[in-house]
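Box 3.1 — From sequence to structure: Glycosidase
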Amino acid sequence: MMNVVKSFFLALCVGGLGLSSIAQNPDIQHLHPTNWWIGMKNPNVQLLVHGKNISTAKVSLAYPGVQIKKTQKLENPNYLLIDLVIAKTTQPGVVKLVFSNGKFKNTQPFPLAARKHKPNNITTADFIYLLMPDRFANGDESNDKFSNMLDTQADKNVPYLRHGGDFQGIISHLDYLQEFGVTTLWNTPVIENNTGLKKELHGNMQAAYHGYHFSDHYKIDRRFGGNEGYKKLSAALHQRGMKLVQDAVYNHVSEDHWMFLDPPTKDWFNMWPTYTATSHKEQVMLDPNGTEADRRLLIDGWFMPFLPDVNARNPHFATYMIQHALWSTEEFGVDGWRIDTYKYNDMEFMNRCNKALLDEYPDMLIFGETFVTNPAFMNYFVQNNVNYPFQCNLPGSCDFPSYSAIGDALTQPWSWDGGVNRLYSTLAQDYFYKNPSKMVTFLDNHDTDRFLSVIGEDFAKYKMGITWLLTTRGIPHLYYGTEVLMKNTKNPTDAEVRQDFVGGWKGDKQNKFTAAGRSAKENEAFDLVKKLANYRKNTPSLYNGKFTQYLPQNGVYVYFRHDTAKTIMVIMNSNSAETTLETARFAERTKGLTGAMNVLTEEKINSLGSLKIPAMTTWVLELK
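Predicted structure (token representation):
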């Protein structure tokens, strides 16, 4: 890191001595964004140009409707900013940007296209599937590794290395996803991670197979299939009526990112005298008695020694990242965004970024990752009903409070505030959120222990968890493989909960993508998800109806999803013995409804008066 800083200051000194003024052919290494669109509500676009001593170049263009508003030099002479204004009357075509330095000229194309993408908005009707492309399926072995990248290895037998999964592998298994009701695909980040192996906390040298170590924002990792492969995946999804979520990282980049190796300004990243880690303590953002020093440590501290912390308070870097979000949405047909490490970002920047997306795509779902299990703290980072001095505008979030609560409900005994009471009380705090239906619910993800292992591989509890996920309020997401009972804890490393989906690689002895390749228990799990997810998809009352819950009694938790067309009653018996449920106390929701159909068993129930609920079982009743 010190060598990078020395190189930066050397570049500043060289520019200051006037050596950069020597006429030479403008050498342009990066021009971002690489292209743009006419018809954007914001007519302005700022180009960041990177090349040896590019700041001395004069820039011109001759294209109807496009003007250079101004150019700006940065501290590092290897950068130049070009502010363009694109008139509403501008037609599609290729703008020729001419960079001249004395007798030398360099012409760069800047394509302008007509906007075509209209996002398919993600709503409570959807069922999101989270997968890690490197670990799902290998559809093209030719792109597993490249000798001219910093990480040249790929070996599926080594947990810490890349395994070769890619976009083609996903495309080849979209039938599988649709079979059990998935409507929306969320990949962990797909942007280029051209970075070497890094020493993680567990001590092993690990590849950036997960995608969170960006090295070039405008390149999709070619080991997944590159920019064209990502467009192919997006098109395949949209042809099926499915949707695409992109995973954003605004908090940090890789130490191998070209902008960190040659920083535009001294404040492009949050630099400390020595390595300083974030505190991870979100409480400092709400503490009325807290300090600016603690808030700065949370936001400006580094996530890892090899992940430089981005300074989004720099207005040019902020514009760069906001434009990248807009560019990705149009370029790849993105329908929604998930934002990594949300609480570590500068919130004013995040509001700007969210607003820019929502200005162009008003109903787009944007949800963050804020690993906070207390609604009293979580609500600060989304649109909320609390009179905070600063208001976040994020529409939704990964619902870590309910994730934690369902885990407790299935692993803790019934008590005054434990077991299913914990689940009830967590959802009772929905009053914090402006729109609880935009919370994204889940049982596990790529950063947690696998759900099946959390519940001690108890299949009855597994069925209860799945049933809760697909009947509670919000937008459900499932982590890849949970539908076929993938298990493990993060011991010794995260790689244990990111194992390959069996059947996605040539030579796999089993194929979990097919019923024939799954065990009887795995098929039972898959069929449960399939039945309930498809029922949910076809039952607006279940995904869009009002959510009404009753105070749990004697280990039994009851809630309803209902509208004028239909009433769904969900009964969760968390006891280890059969329980008789007298339904008179639910009269305000069951009035006029005398019978039911058990959605999971298709058994008819002729009377709602007294119900015998088996031990550790959840019923989903469509009331008649």
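Summary of the box: The two ends are 67 Å apart (CA to CA).
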